[in-house]
Amino acid sequence: MKEKNFKNYLEKNNNLSESTLFLREYGYQLINKFVNLDEKINEFKKLDEPDEEMEELLQDWVNHLVKNPPKNKSLVPIVLKQYANAVNAYLKYHRFRIDIKNLKFPKQLQEEKYPITIEEIQRIFKPAKWIKQGYYLCLISTGARPREILGLKKDDVEWVGDKYKALIPATLTKKGLSRTVFFSKECNPFLNQIMKQDRIDLFPHNENLHEAVSNEGRVFREYCTKAGLNEKHNTTGNYKINLYSFRRFFFTRALDLLKNDIAHAMVGHGAYLQVYQSRTGQQKKELWDEVEPEILVFDQSKKEQKIRDLEIALKHNKQLEERMGEAEKRLNEFAEKESDLVKAFKLLKKGYATLEGVTDSEVHLKFTDKAVEK
């Protein structure tokens, strides 16, 4: 029987996703900076109540991370729980039974999301390298997560008519569900060159994708610093603008134009994907085509043309309303005249009421004859 240690634990679980394995390794490294975990495991196994002792140790470690976060960056509660769960998975391997729900974590604080503007995006692009500009445009035009675009292979991308599309593999998505995305025409010059380059990956990156995404975040922060866009939230201390700002930029505009469930599906929210995936390739492309004018960073011609079209349509509607108002006015005037004429005929007929068998037409003739006589 193999010795129970972290190396053998990873080998036993090598079928897990890359991100899950990375999280468990990182969690193990973090707690070992606080205490020698394997020594404590062997020590607590000899006690009458090992689970209680281990749970208390985990709580002490969580409290330590809150006060002394790695890299001096505050950790939100959800991340702390991820680290605790990662370590707990290793403890289960050693037959410990710890309920993470029993641990106390800081209260989750929710900051209002900052809406990045076109002008701010353009400022970030100025110091960015050419390949990074292409990467950012792909994020903006698809609403995809940084990992989902960075992990694409060239084989995942193909040309369809006037733009590129990509099938994001299930292994890259948060919910394990693949989906099709389309890149805006603004991405074409970048992707044309990238597709010619001699490599398998769409964008160059480290072998470890999780580390590669973290590195992209650091590079993006450098560009934001040069652009003077490093403002932070007062409560959490997190930056208002980050790589996920591009995702929110796309999602907000898709929500304005499309049905709620379609917009959610386009950015990969699992509960809505079935609505999107049941559509044909052409139907999917039409959705992206509709959103495209609103997400262009540099080519504003389509947006300006759309505004002009709307102005023309509004002018036409106003003219139509004026014509309809005029027509309604004339109809009312005609109705009033018709009403007066009917009253006149009724009064005239009443004057001939003693004449049996007189019709409306005869009354009209007699009315006309009298008028002639006068």
Low-confidence stretches: 370-374
How would you sum up the major sheet? 3 strands, antiparallel
Total helical elements: 16
Output the CATH class name of the largest domain: Mainly Alpha
Q: Please indicate the count of domains.
A: 3
**How far apart lie the N and C ends?**
130 Å
Strand content: under 5%
Class by helix and strand content?
mainly alpha
* Full CATH superfamily name of the largest domain: Intergrase catalytic core
- Can you give the mean pLDDT? 86
Shape, please?
A: elongated
CATH topology of the largest domain: hpI Integrase, Chain A
How helix-rich are the residues, as a percent range? 55-70%
What is the string of helix and strand elements? HHHHHHHHEEEHHHHHHHH
Can you list the strand order of the major beta sheet?
Answer: 1-2-3
What's the number of extended β-strand segments? Answer: 3
Assembly classification: single chain
CATH arch. level architecture of the largest domain: Orthogonal Bundle
Gyration radius (Cα, Å) is: 36 Å
